[in-house]
Amino acid sequence: MKWPTKGRWKTSALWVSSLIENIWGTEEENLASPDRVAPAPRSFLKKKTLGGSKESAIRFFFFTNGVLAIIVLIGIFAILVYTAVPAFREISLAEFLGNKTWDPTSPEKAEYGLLSMIISTLMCTAGALVIAVPIGLGVAAYLSDVAHWRAREIIKPVVEILAGIPSVVTGFLGIVLFGPVIAKIFHTGHGLNAVNGSFLLAIMALPTIISISEDSLNAVPSAYTEASLALGGSRWQTLVRVKIPAALSGIIASFMLGMGRAIGETMTVLMVTGNARSFPHGFLESVRTMTANIAIELGEVPYYTTHYYALFAIGLVLFIMTFIVN
């Protein structure tokens, strides 16, 4: 028997290797190409298909909710515009926004000036922010960096409960508690004024500011804090110069949301601000906000009159202000 020579063995081996590569591919191709991977079991494919369908259903559910929220927002805006536009057939926009007098029931000439109520609303909101911002940021910083876990477990639920107190209860406290104190301190005849409204709006805005500011401070990467402490910074320096600047966008967002909460509040300011329609010249005077004016007059105004449409125009102005703030 004649055995193949060395050259023939080499040629045969190369030919067989080439044939195998053409059929199965190289090892690199098998690793890189998903087409050459062995088929998965049917049970795995079935589970994967079911998982994909569940994920698609969840995505569709959340997408639908988002679209519905947008539709509701657009619907509210459209209704306000549709109901407010007829008012400007009788009132000019300049008169509506620039006139100080609101007296729609005057027998001589009805006045539909919104300026005094815009100023009153901004006064109460600004006063509330002056009180709520430093307190809210201080409490958030304390909960985030200073408080013991036991103190945090007590303070955190208290803040959440504060957010759930009905506004009418807060207004009642303003009448029986804050009002007499303000009247005694500032020697006014009563305590129903912008100062009282500012205090109560600050209380109502505090939970929003505290919660969002604390979440923003907790979201700062721990590496920032560790680096500051490693460089010799104290806990106070780390908080003021590192964490608060890093969380500034979220903290500012909490201020804006608190401001939106104060602008849109109705019952509390209706109860404690005195509801005077005159133009305010100070925080110790009685004021009437836009929300309070709508609540007072909408229930008694005849439908489809200029007065009726003007109240919806006030609602449109409030909607735009809140939308800009948020």
Describe what this molecule looks like in 3D:
With 326 residues, the chain is mainly α. It contains 14 helices and 2 strands. The chain has a two-stranded antiparallel sheet. The N terminus is likely disordered.
Extract low-pLDDT stretches: 1-10, 27-32
Order of helices and strands: HHHHEEHHHHHHHHHH
The strand count comes to 2
CATH topology of the domain at 114-290: MetI-like fold
Mean pLDDT: 86
Q: Order of strands side by side in the largest beta sheet? A: 1-2
Proportion of strand residues: under 5%
Q: What would CATH call the homologous superfamily of the domain at 114-290?
A: MetI-like
Shape: globular
Number of helices: 14
Highest CATH level, the class of the domain at 114-290 = Mainly Alpha
Annotated CATH architecture of the domain at 114-290: Orthogonal Bundle
What is the distance, rounded to the nearest whole angstrom, between the alpha carbons of the first and last residues? 95 Å
Q: Helical amount among residues, as a percent range? A: over 70%
Biggest sheet character: 2 strands, antiparallel
Structural class: mainly alpha
- Work out the radius of gyration: 34 Å
Short summary:
The chain is mainly α and 326 residues long. The chain has helices spanning 6-24, 27-32, 42-84, 93-98, 115-146, 149-163, 167-186, 194-218, 222-230, 235-246, 248-264, 267-272, 290-297, 306-325, and strands spanning 102-103, 111-112. It has a domain at 114-290: Orthogonal Bundle (MetI-like fold).
